Amino acid sequence: MALSPAARQKSSTGQIINMFSTDTKQLQMFLNFMNNVALAPLQIIVALALIWLQVDYATLVGLGFMFFMVPLNGLIFAKV
Amino acid sequence: MADASQKKYAPVAPTEKSVAEAAPVSATTGMKMDAKLGSAIFENNIDVELVEGKSAEDKAGFFGRWFYTYLDAIFKVGNERTLMMADLGAVSERDRCAWVESRFDIYWAQEMKLPRRKQSLWRVLWRTVGWDQLFLSLWYYAIYAGVTYGPILIMNALVQDIQGTAPLSTVTTWIFVALMFVLPMLGSITAAMSNAMLAHVSVQFRNVLVTKVRRDSWEGVGRTLAHLTLFPLPDRVLSFL
């Protein structure tokens, strides 16, 4: 949160507290996902390595399909 | 005129007398006493916001903390009637504003001595609740993430054993079968512990930030927070989610 002096003059204490309260709630929600965010890349790498041990280069097909689906998922969820 | 259901659940401000008549609140009361208080409050249609004393979690032993048996009493009461605030017992000491606020003030003052570009609210918050909470919760979650692969690898080994491509000894087979049941449970326990720790931390963060801003607003020095970049990462992640 960064306020210019002009914006600060326009904002009442109540408004700032309301915004901050919402921000802190977002932070509270983030902390519930924080471990997932931190360890998900590692989990994906381990999972891919295990798949590689089983199916070799076919892993790349799955990986490619996953990357292909990322923008499509984004597009779909943007409309939901 | 309000109907009967509205009347029953309408909030009534508790008075000292009504709470005292319902049940005494003591620092030594356990969950049983809190449940009794909750029943009295429910019957008398009053509510209280805070029960003094140690929280059920703080009072729980090692087994209770890891397996959440301290919640049994709440589940039991919840199965019988609507839960009241008093049924939940006291708030954990570390979750109270006074505890986090006092620590936050110390680290905030230290952070303010740094050049503005090096100041970090994120660092102050973690120092307030303790870095050990972050690393320990990450460690528990890493255990969960690790053991998640256990059953998959075991299943793979068992299939190879059944196929005859990589035979296992009888003892190893039984150990693997046992681990198929043990590892998911271990993962669930460590994941639950990690989530519980972060739930505490998130409450503490929120408490301390809201308290700090409110206090600064009263003092007319809200500007002290204004220049700090506040959590761009959480915002982006939450936008993504």
Give a verbal description of the structure.
The complex is a heterodimer of chains A (80) and B (241). Chain A has 3 helices and no strands. By secondary structure, chain A is an all-alpha fold. The model of chain A has no long low-confidence stretch (mean pLDDT 82). Chain A is 89% helix and 0% strand. The radius of gyration of chain A is 21 Å and the shape is elongated. With 241 residues, chain B is an all-alpha fold. Chain B has 2 domains: 11-91, no CATH class; 95-240. Chain B contains 12 helices and no strands. In chain B, helix 7 (97-112) crosses helix 10 (170-219). The longest helix of chain B is centred in the C-terminal third of the chain and has 50 residues, at 170-219. Chain B starts with a helix and ends with a helix. Residues 1-33 and 226-241 of chain B have low confidence and may be disordered. Classes of the chains: A mainly alpha (80), B mainly alpha (241). The interface between A and B is large, with 32 and 39 residues.
Summarize the structure.
Chain A has 80 residues and is mainly α. Chain A contains three helices and no strands.
Topology:
The complex is a heterodimer of chains A (80) and B (241).
Chain A (H helix, E strand, L loop, with lengths): L4 H6 L2 H43 L2 H22 L1
Chain B lengths: L3 H6 L6 H7 L8 H14 L11 H4 L2 H6 L4 H9 L16 H16 L8 H9 L1 H33 L6 H50 L3 H4 L5 H9 L1
